[in-house]
Amino acid sequence: MQARLAFRVAGRLSEGADALEADLSERLRFAREKALERARLARAAAPAAAPALVSSGSSAALLGGGGWWVKLASVLPLAVLAAGLLLIEHLHTQSQIATAADIDAELLIDDLPPAAYTDPGFAEFLKTPSE
Q1: pLDDT tens, residue by residue, 3-57
Q2: How far apart, in whole angstroms, are the C-alpha atoms of residue 113 and residue 108?
Q3: What is the C-alpha to C-alpha distance for residues 41 and 39, in angstroms, rounded to an integer?
Q4: String of DSSP letters for 34-67
Q5: DSSP letter at 24?
Q6: Distance of CA 114 to CAs 11, 71, 73, 103, 107, Å?
Q7: Residue 26 and residue 23: Cα distance in Å, rounded?
Q8: Which helix (H) or strand (E) element contains residue 121?
Q9: What is the spatial distance between Cα 126 and Cα 1, in angstroms, rounded to a whole number?
Q10: Which of helix, strand or coil describes residue 98?
């Protein structure tokens, strides 16, 4: 895909190259050769620079060469997330228990006839807030 794009761009640039003046096209040719030479030198120097970069302290830690604290730091967010989820679940359960206890307390202190407990609309009555 990149090669196709490069060929298309090069083709577009070459279309207008014939209309350029001779001195301008010669300067462009010289600049192109100079850029190609710099690219060759950069490619030749890149493999020699790579091991020095990997062996540096900060990049070694990123690549897994660090100590136990690096592993702990990578697991710590997961542990905090799991603890947070457990706390949320616990608080939700406690809220449900408190709500059920409030309903039970209201039922026990209220004077209701026994027939009210068997009424199909009684559950709906319990869900509506009392004023």
Answers
A1: 888 888 878 777 777 777 878 888 888 888 898 888 888 888 776 544 544 444 5
A2: 12
A3: 5
A4: HHHHHHHHHHHHHHHHHHHHHTSHHHHHHTT-S-
A5: H
A6: 92, 64, 61, 17, 11
A7: 5
A8: none
A9: 67
A10: helix
